[in-house]
Amino acid sequence: MNDPKVLFSALFEPRRVALIGASSDVTKTTSRPQRFLRRHGFTGEILPVNPSRSEILGEKAYRDLDAIPGDIDHAYILLNGAAAVRALADCGRRGVKVASILAGGFADAGAAGASLQDDLAKVVRETGIRLVGPNSIGTVSTDPAVALTANAAFAVEKLRAGNWAVVSQSGSLIGALLSRADARGIGFSRLISVGNEVDLAVGEIADLLVDDPRTTAILLFMETLRDGERLARAARRAHAAGKPVIAYKLGRSDIGQELAKSHTGAIAGSDATFDAFCRRHGIARVSMFESLIDVPSLLVGHARSRSGGRRVAVATTTGGGAAMVVDSMAMAGLDIVGPPKNLVEWLKPLGIAAGDGKLVDLTLAGAKPEIVSGTIERLLADEGNDAVIFVVGSSAQFNPELAVEPLLRFAGSDKPFAVALTPSAEKSLALLTAAGVPAFRHPESCAEAMALCLLRTPPQPVPRLPEPSIGALDALEAGRVSGFDERRAADFFAALGVPMAKSMAVPDARRIAAAVAEVGAPVVLKILSIDIPHKTEAGGVALGIPDGQTAAVAAREIEKRVKAYAPDAKLQGFLVQKMERGLVEVILGYRRDPLVGPTVTVGLGGVLAEIYKDASTRLAPVDEAEAMQMVAEVKGLATVRGYRNMPKGDVTALARTIAAFSTLAHRQFADIAEAEINPLLVKREGEGVVAVDGLVVLGQPTHIPSSLRYAPSALL
Q: How is residue 225 annotated by DSSP?
């Protein structure tokens, strides 16, 4: 089924729902979908399927699908394992538009389960039925009321309607979001658990929600990324529609990635690459689970525009509480600015000295509604800031109506405005939320929301890629035929536009003296072998050799050490390379990520690269402007950016080289799995950069989805 409108209706607004494996035993999970549908006001037909029952919970039951007359919009399969596969096949044959499968035990449960999941995929391919799951806890809409779920959280008496949609790879976390949001007075438009994503995945469902008039923000809980192509498209369309896409993803730590893998049966992937994906396509990634329900209130209405500034004005009646907010703002990369002159002068006759610092502390004397509202009014009108936050103290807990009343009139302000509550003040929080004023109970989530509101970039255009030169294609073919040792890697990188150190390859030690004379001493001597990618570890490198005679002796010593280290390695000779020096060593890395496509990384290089992990990653390709941003994000490169009068490095040449290196993203290089230059030496300003070591790893040609594939016409 390819019609998005029909698919959306079958998912979220079905009129005839089959429950395959429904139970009359209210203690069983398989009874919940039927009970929840009726409890929350579903007015369509419920069609329980159970061969041993003629009636279930007051509804006529059917022995099988064929016994049900008419069309079926959505079937929820409540059976396990092979029985679920057979039920899906029956649904496909019967012409059911969409099916969901509750059970786990597929790819999330080892080889046997993975085989069953392959069977599900085969049914989808052969019949054209659309599938949610398996391992899907269900699909919910609040308008119209459709609680097609087995999630125990929906045992609540009433569902709160709202305008935010949730797409989650975890079923149980939907319940956590539901309860936290309800306590805040926040409701949702749609909620869906996608499970193992055999067919319908986060990206395609998010794309459907972009066109949903009842949805103003799309919230994603993710454990991995299976359909980057569709999610990229959805995020770009959502930005154009003014609907923020906000994502919380597991796998920020190594152990988190492993947990995500074991739970979903998929690779969580690198956290840095997911960040790069979000940055490129305009997705607001949050670091706190709580932020999934905190951030949308501030982003909705400011999703398509950003001031480009980072100046935040903070006013308060509680100095200590506001200090926590200010501290969090600074950690998020925002600047706190002081009050405008007109506000200082207005407060003076009231006995409030607001001009001594950046924080506008009204104190308890300034807690009167007219002073609070007057302060906010003047801050919002001030062109010296880009956003305003008001921090409320204990009055929010003990006098909620009085505390928030002067704040309500600023709902929907053109300039971002938020309220941070210092105490636990649920009533104040609910009053602000109901009025449409973004309100926060944690300084960290308030800062994260404001940083995303002001600093988040819109979807970025994909840089155009030139066609590879004949020299690059020839060098690549040579590496394919004979393998990529350092010499062939250098030839290839040079053809891409990466400056490489002068070097000469020789087959044995007898010719080294002549090579040293040609290259010019001092030199670096390296073993050449496609079997030894890390030559230093094998003892295959000698530095600062002053002449040919010394180099010949060093070559024999290198050969001896390498043979002891890797006796089976095939040795192709030696590389004699001009000894180069620079201000700092940089590592350039390239990888065709299985989840997001080509990526490029720049970081502090040398032998300590893996220890410090001081790096910046982007989707490839990048242009020179984006490459310059990457350089600015690497802390260790501050030394060549003019830090404390230290000699400036040629960062312009570095950015140009990063951009050239990122052209590995071209489709004609699809069989390059990884590539690395380490180190790339950055010289003084105006003197350029030079690469002194390189690595190319070939793999099977990688299929990159069309929206992540690059060519001269940009995004194909």
A: -
DSSP 8-64: HHHHHS-SEEEEET--S-TTSGGGHHHHHHHHTT--SEEEEE-TT-SEETTEE-BSS
In this predicted model, what pLDDT tens digit does every residue of 504-535 receive, in sequence order?
Answer: 999 988 899 999 999 999 999 999 998 887 88
- For residue 122, give both structure tokens: 């085969």
Q: Report d(CA 66, CA 390) in Å as an integer.
A: 62
Neighbour count for residue 364 (Cβ, 10 Å): 11
201 token code pair: 């995945």
Evaluate whether 4-298 and 584-715 have a shared fold: no
Cα 716 from Cα 709, distance rounded (Å): 6
The full DSSP string for 579-632 is: ----SEEEEEEEEEETTTEEEEEEEE-STTHHHH--EEEEESP--HHHHHHHHH
Strands 45-49 and 16-20: parallel
CATH architecture of the domain formed by 584-715: 2-Layer Sandwich (3.30)
Which of the two residues, 298 and 594, has the higher pLDDT score?
A: 298
Contacts of 341 (CB under 8 A, 6+ apart): none
**Which residues neighbour 538 within 8 Å (Cβ) at sequence distance 6 or greater?**
527, 532, 561, 562, 565, 566, 569
Higher per-residue pLDDT: 612 or 290: 290
H-only helix segments in 128-185? 172-183
Half-sphere CA count of 237, side-chain side, radius 13 A: 17
* Annotated domain spans of the chain: 4-298, 305-455, 502-577, 584-715
**Tell me, which fold does domain 4-298 have in CATH?**
Rossmann fold (3.40.50)
Q: What does the alpha-carbon distance between residue 263 and residue 649 come to, in Å, rounded to a whole number?
A: 46
628-646 residue pLDDT tens = 999 999 999 998 988 888 8
Tell me what the mean pLDDT of segment 49-53 comes to: 96
Output the CA–CA distances (angstroms, integers) from residue 143 to 188, 189, 215, 401, 581, in the order listed: 9, 7, 11, 30, 67
Is the pLDDT at 183 greater than 70, yes or no?
yes
Three-class SS of residue 332? coil
Query: What mean pLDDT, rounded, does the chain reach?
Result: 90
Q: Supply 133's token pair.
A: 């799951």
Report the alpha-carbon distance of residue 616 to residue 609 in Å, rounded: 12
Whether the per-residue pLDDT at 258 is higher than 70: the answer is: no
Residue of 524, 513, 534, 529 lying closest to 572 (CA atoms)? 529
d(CA 711, CA 716): 7
679 pLDDT exceeds 60?
yes
Class for domain 305-455, per CATH? alpha beta
Closest CA to 445 of 320, 289, 321: 289
- CATH superfamily membership of 502-577: ATP-grasp fold, A domain (3.30.1490.20)
How many helices (H) and strands (E) in the chain? 25, 32
Q: Please tell me the least confidently modeled range out of 286-290, 664-668, 682-686.
A: 286-290
**pLDDT tens-place string over residues 419-440:** 998 878 788 888 899 899 999 9
